[in-house]
Amino acid sequence: MATFIPQDIYGGAIKAIIPERWLDASELRQIPDHQELFLSPTTLSNLIFEINERVSEQVALSALQANPNPDVLEFLGSTTNSGPQPVDKAAALYHLNDIRDGDADILRIVTPPQQVTARKIPRANVYKGIAQMNSSTAPRSGVAPSIGGAAPGSSADGSSVSSVSVHYLLVRLEEQETDMLVFFNVPHKEFDEKGDPRGLSREEELAAAIIDGLVERLEIVDWGLFGG
């Protein structure tokens, strides 16, 4: 069973958890100010916390209507109903598309965004879900893939392919005009190459457990982090 440890992020303004023995990437390289990044010591998986400007209703729904993928749209249901859920789910889709590597990544929804109650952030609308980024195009020379850090593999016909599971948590802070996101990225390549489906399954279980753990334990202790 995985062990989690408490982890202060953003200078202690937020309390979170990470898997035991995971590495703080800021000790290895420069990380953008709006992100916190942690790396597995044994796999290519990573855990990213992000603080972004809150996606407005207009932007979220406009992005949704512009998405040509009916399979992605179907999981959201009707966006004509009043209330926050359709807009929040559209915002989740917006953020997922934002981390795609352009047309190189194909977004597949594994588990639609489900509203949950963050025990220590009761004022927020919070959603969790799982998506998958599938790529059939190798990254440009010298440019790392946008998600997960795994180099693509090769299919039988010689084209490059890669797949990354994205377990995510979206915390919508309306008063602070902020969307806080957590992405636990699980690249499949290393497990596929070793023929280790059980290892991949364990890594997916770890990702799900971290997201569930954050629902219970994520806490904002300094609201001044968001300005205003």
Automatic annotation (TrEMBL):
GO cellular component: nucleus
UniProt entry keywords in alphabetical sequence: Protein transport, Transport
GO molecular function, one term: guanyl-nucleotide exchange factor activity
Transmembrane segments: none
Matches recorded under SUPFAM superfamilies: Mog1p/PsbP-like
Region (Disordered), start-end ranges: 136-158
Coiled-coil portions: none
One BP term from GO: protein import into nucleus
Origin: domain of life: Eukaryota
Low complexity: compositionally biased ranges: 141-158
Family, similarity comment: Belongs to the MOG1 family.
PANTHER family in the cross-refs: RAN GUANINE NUCLEOTIDE RELEASE FACTOR
Name of the protein: Ran-interacting protein Mog1
Organism: Aspergillus mulundensis
